[in-house]
Design a protein that fits this description.
Elements (H helix, E strand, L loop, with lengths): L1 E5 L5 E8 L6 E7 L7 E4 H7 L2 E9 L5 E13 L2 E10 L4 E2 L1 H4 L2 E5 L6 E6 L2
Parallel strand pairs: 3-8, 4-7
Antiparallel strand pairs: 1-2, 1-10, 2-3, 2-6, 4-8, 5-6, 6-7, 9-10
Length: 123
């Protein structure tokens, strides 16, 4: 089980340990975004600092319906205590956890400031 908290801005935040495959990890605070279908997004400055390997480009659709080209990188993350190879999308925004990481897990949010965020494996 993983725990997080609802921020003063009413965002569900979870800590994610991420880094280059086979290298030490850093911990980032990431906002849970159920409208984001990939695994994790990070600012390019963090991606560059970690030395993540570029993987490919993809076209994605934003919430407003516009399409943009995303740069994707490969990384390793610690998720539910397990090392997992994931795609990381370069973004100008704050780090986001998407449905790719949440798939197969139950997400519960106490939707008040300081509320508990719980993520646990289904089954």
């Amino acid at each position: 089980m993983m725990l997080g908290v609802v921020s003063n801005n009413c965002e569900a935040i979870i800590k994610v340990a991420v880094g280059r495959i086979g290298s030490p990890k850093i911990t980032v605070d990431a906002v849970i975004d159920t409208g984001f279908t990939s695994f994790l997004s990070l600012p390019l400055s963090i991606i560059t600092g970690l030395g993540l390997t570029w993987h490919y480009r993809d076209v994605g659709t934003l919430g407003d319906g516009s399409e943009v080209v995303f740069e994707l990188y490969k990384a390793a993350a610690i998720w539910d205590g397990q090392n997992k190879i994931i795609d990381v999308v370069a973004s100008d925004a704050e780090p986001l956890v998407g449905m790719g990481l949440l798939y197969g897990f139950k997400l519960q949010i106490e939707a008040v400031e300081g509320g508990r965020v719980t993520i646990e494996a289904i089954g």
